[in-house]
Specification:
The protein is of the alpha/beta class and 294 residues long. It is built from 12 helices and 11 strands. The protein has 2 domains: 64 residues, Ubiquitin-associated (UBA) domain (Helicase, Ruva Protein, domain 3), CATH 1.10.8.10; 215 residues, Rossmann fold. The strands form 3 sheets. Strands 5-4-3-8-9-11-10 form a 7-stranded mixed beta sheet, sandwiched between helices. It is elongated. Bound molecules: S-adenosylmethionine.
Length: 294
C-alpha cells in the first residue's frame, strides 16, 4: 500500500531516531524535499499527497544512507554558504557557517587597507569546494583570485562550483602543496598577493575519531587532520606567507576556538609581521586570526 508524504516522513523519522541522528525530523524533510524537487513550503503543501512505490523506494535509500551517518549535505550534494549554493561530495569538507567570518574580514580589509588597489590579488589555500574563493569573487568583481588545493578531486568540485556560480573565468585553480606553487625559497614565481586566506585542516590527529561520525567517518581526513597538536598547517603557512605577500599585505586564517594564543605566538616569532588580531564568530568563539605583514 502506498504511503502519503507525511506518513513516509514519520516512518523515516522513527527509523533515524533508532540510529541516534541528532535532528531526525529536519533531515527527513530535507531529504524528501530533495527527492520531490520541492522547497519547504511546497513540501508542507503536499504532505497529504501519495508517493509512488518507486518514490518510496528511492526515499528509503536516502534515509538508509542518513542512517549510516552520511551527512545530509553529501546525500543531497548541496550546501549553502554566503547565500550561494555549493555542490559538495565526500571529496570536500562541508562548508561551515562560521567560515563566513573570514569573508567578512576580507571585505573590511579591502575597504580599510586596500581601497583603490586594483586588481586586488587574493590567494585561497585549501579551497575545498571553493566556497571562500567563490564568495570573494562574487563580492569583489575586480579581484584576481587564485584558489589552490592539494586534492585534485576537491579542485574539480571547486571548478564546477565556480561555473555554477558564474565566476569560473574570475578564479584560477592550482593544484599544489600550500604555498609551494607560488613561492619557493623566497623566490616568487608570480606577483605577490595583497591577501592570503586559508581555512586549513586544524583538528589534532588523535581527536578526529572523537568527533561525530558524520565528520570522522565521512569528511576527508586531508581536510581535517592538522597533525599532532592541530597546528602543523599554521606553522607552515605563517613561515612562508610573508614571502608571498606585498608589503603590508594580510594573512587571514580560520582557527579552532582554543588555538588563538598558540598561533599568535607562532606569528609573533616570525619577523615578517607587525600585528596580529583575533576575531570571534557569532557564538563568541575565537575563529579568525589576522596577521599583518610589515
Ligand atoms: C578545512 S578544509 C577547508 C575547505 C574550504 N576552504 C572551507 O573553508 O570549507 C582544508 C582544505 O585544505 C586542503 N589541504 C590539505 N592539505 C593541503 C596542502 N598541503 N596544500 C594545499 N591544500 C591542502 C584539503 O584538501 C581541504 O580541501
Amino acid at each position: 500500500m502506498n504511503l502519503k508524504v507525511s506518513e513516509a516522513i514519520k516512518k523515516a523519522e522513527n527509523f533515524l531516531k533508532t540510529k541516534s541522528i541528532p535532528k531526525p525530523r529536519l533531515d527527513c524533510e530535507v531529504l524528501m524535499e530533495s527527492l520531490l524537487g520541492f522547497n519547504q513550503a511546497e513540501l508542507y503543501a503536499n504532505l497529504e499527497r501519495y508517493l509512488s512505490s518507486l518514490q518510496f523506494e528511492s526515499y528509503s535509500r536516502l534515509i538508509e544512507r542518513r542512517g549510516n551517518r552520511e551527512p545530509t549535505q553529501y546525500i543531497i550534494q548541496s550546501r549553502e554558504f554566503w547565500s550561494l549554493d555549493f555542490r559538495v561530495d565526500k571529496s570536500v569538507l562541508i562548508p561551515r557557517p562560521e567560515t563566513e567570518i573570514l569573508i567578512e574580514r576580507v571585505l573590511v580589509l579591502r575597504l580599510e587597507k586596500h581601497a583603490g588597489v586594483s586588481p586586488l590579488r587574493i590567494l585561497d589555500i585549501g579551497t575545498g569546494c571553493g566556497n571562500i574563493a567563490i564568495a570573494l569573487a562574487k563580492e569583489i568583481p575586480a579581484a584576481k583570485i587564485i584558489a589552490s588545493d592539494i586534492s585534485l578531486s576537491a579542485l574539480k568540485i571547486a571548478m564546477l562550483n565556480a561555473k555554477l556560480n558564474g565566476v569560473k573565468k574570475r578564479i584560477e585553480f592550482v593544484q599544489g602543496n600550500l604555498l609551494e606553487p607560488f613561492c619557493n625559497d623566497r623566490n616568487l614565481k608570480i606577483p605577490p598577493f595583497n591577501i592570503i586566506v586559508s581555512n586549513p585542516p586544524y583538528i589534532p590527529s588523535e581527536q578526529i575519531n572523537e568527533l561525530s561520525p558524520e565528520v570522522s567517518k565521512w569528511e576527508p581526513r586531508t581536510a581535517l587532520d592538522g597533525g599532532i597538536d592541530g597546528l602543523d598547517f599554521y606553522r607552515k603557512i605563517i613561515a612562508k606567507a610573508g614571502d608571498c605577500l606585498v608589503k603590508e599585505g594580510f594573512l587571514l586564517l580560520e582557527i579552532g576556538e582554543d588555538q588563538a594564543e598558540k598561533i599568535k605566538e607562532i606569528a609573533i616569532f616570525h619577523n615578517a609581521y607587525k600585528e596580529v588580531k583575533v576575531y570571534q564568530d557569532y557564538s563568541g568563539k575565537n575563529r579568525v586570526i589576522e596577521i599583518w605583514k610589515k
